[in-house]
């Protein structure tokens, strides 16, 4: 079948065509089929375009049995229609897709890493490469080579070939079984000739810039995350705003941010050590004070205590000579300490009273609790 208008000229932003039919769907939307399309249908790794048909929002575009099927927000009468593409979104996808071709070509030719898959995402895109995981030095070298090709302003254009006349230097992915007509390839002059049905920029200069944002090991190779064009500018703007906001919070210049944050981290570590020592000291004092409380069983609660703190309080109480059974509660946790047989018998009952779960051995039962406010009721269960 012939190529669509969006494939013949990716710069088209609108098209006058004919709506052949429009039918409702079960979910309240409508399906429309047009004679031709300026909206690219999802395929070949490129997401579907968005746009309008006679002012009605087009929510999706898919190729089905050689036709482009549009998902419409409302009904449109069959006949002559005007189709318009969401150009900001389309051009962004063109930049990402052309950048992917350029990255893949240079990665293979200069670094010996063939592309095994790619993904064009809404915020960040990625290319999966075979071979050993790229080093940081290789990432920077690849990024530099890609941006050098952008500065060279190489033409990017579609070329058509008969399936049996494809050039020997073409990089080819799987050719569709339903191919009926010429084979479409995208050429980046001097860099790449690759089978592709998608939309692309007309010149590498229109990519503006490419940043390889991340390398990760993936399925025995590398996954390279990248942004191109407007996404680079938007990312730099966001980073600049974050830097300025951090400088205001830290009351320092951008260049001083690292040292300022390191100072805060070091101070937090030191404060943590001091807090730990003070909590241990407090636990010791509170444990010793429990010995003077009346009753057949001892209760203790500390709002911000974790299990470690409760264990320290219990140990301190035993060191001070406290022999009675104890129920200690804290921030969503509890601990029972006492005679082994008593604790084994009462532990599950107390856990249930506190709406918690726990376990233990050798005279200690501990766990989490949702209702530590019921500690007085639970303590009554511990009385021998």
Structure in a nutshell:
The chain has 8 helices and 18 strands. The chain is α+β, with helices and mostly antiparallel strands.
Mean pLDDT: 92
Tally of helical runs? 8
User: What would you call the shape?
Assistant: elongated
The count of strands amounts to: 18
Distance between the termini: 89 Å
Instruction: Provide the succession of SSEs.
Output: HEEEEEEHEEHEEEEEHHEHEEHEEH
- Radius of gyration in whole Å, from Cα? 34 Å
- Structural class of the helices, strands and pairings? alpha+beta
The share of residues in extended strands comes to 25-35%
Helical residue percent band: 25-40%
Largest sheet: 6 strands, antiparallel, barrel
Low-confidence stretches: none
Strand order of the largest sheet: 1-2-5-4-3-6
What does this structure look like?
With 384 residues, this protein is α+β, with helices and mostly antiparallel strands. The chain has eight helices and 18 strands. It has helices at 5-8, 87-111, 136-151, 230-250, 257-289, 307-319, 340-353, 375-382, and strands spanning 14-24, 30-34, 51-53, 56-64, 67-72, 79-85, 115-119, 125-129, 156-161, 183-188, 192-195, 210-218, 221-228, 298-301, 326-329, 333-337, 356-361, 364-369. The protein has a six-stranded antiparallel barrel with strand order 1-2-5-4-3-6. A five-stranded mixed beta sheet has the order 14-15-16-18-17, with helices on both faces. It has a four-stranded antiparallel beta sheet with strand order 7-8-13-12. A hairpin with a 5-residue loop joins strand 1 (14-24) and strand 2 (30-34). Helix 2 (87-111) crosses helix 3. It is elongated. It starts with a helix and ends with a helix.
């Amino acid at each position: 079948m012939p190529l669509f208008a969006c494939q013949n000229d990716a710069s088209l932003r609108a098209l006058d065509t004919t709506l052949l039919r429009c039918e409702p769907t079960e979910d309240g939307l409508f399906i429309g089929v047009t004679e031709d399309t300026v909206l690219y249908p999802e395929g070949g790794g490129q997401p579907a375009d968005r746009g309008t048909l006679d002012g009605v929002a087009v929510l999706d575009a898919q190729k089905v049995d050689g036709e482009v099927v549009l998902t419409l927000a409302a009904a449109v009468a069959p006949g002559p229609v005007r189709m318009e593409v969401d150009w900001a979104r389309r051009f962004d996808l063109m930049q990402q897709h052309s950048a992917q071709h350029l990255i893949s070509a240079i990665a293979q030719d200069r670094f010996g890493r063939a592309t095994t898959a790619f993904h064009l995402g809404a915020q960040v895109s990625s290319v999966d490469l075979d071979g050993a995981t790229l080093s940081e030095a290789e990432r920077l070298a690849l990024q530099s080579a890609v941006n050098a090709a952008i500065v060279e302003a190489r033409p990017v254009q579609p070329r058509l070939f008969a399936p049996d006349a494809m050039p020997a230097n073409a990089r080819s992915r799987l050719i569709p079984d339903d191919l009926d007509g010429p084979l479409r390839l995208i050429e980046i002059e001097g860099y790449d000739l690759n089978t592709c049905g998608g939309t692309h920029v007309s010149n590498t200069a229109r990519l503006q810039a490419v940043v390889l944002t991340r390398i990760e090991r993936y399925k025995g190779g590398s996954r390279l995350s990248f942004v191109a064009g407007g996404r680079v500018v938007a990312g730099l703007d966001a980073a600049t705003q974050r830097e300025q906001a951090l400088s205001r919070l830290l009351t320092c210049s951008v260049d001083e941010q690292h040292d300022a944050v390191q100072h805060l981290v070091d101070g937090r570590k030191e404060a943590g050590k001091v807090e730990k020592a003070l909590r241990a000291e407090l636990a010791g004092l509170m444990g010793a004070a429990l010995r003077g409380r009346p009753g057949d069983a001892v209760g203790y609660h500390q709002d911000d205590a974790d299990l470690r703190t409760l264990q320290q309080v219990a140990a301190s109480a035993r060191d001070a000579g406290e022999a009675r059974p104890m129920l200690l509660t804290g921030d969503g946790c509890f601990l029972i300490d006492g005679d082994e047989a008593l604790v084994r018998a009462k532990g599950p009952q107390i856990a249930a009273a506190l709406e918690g779960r726990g376990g233990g051995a050798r005279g200690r039962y501990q766990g989490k609790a949702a209702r530590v406010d019921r500690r007085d009721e639970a303590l009554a269960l511990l009385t021998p």
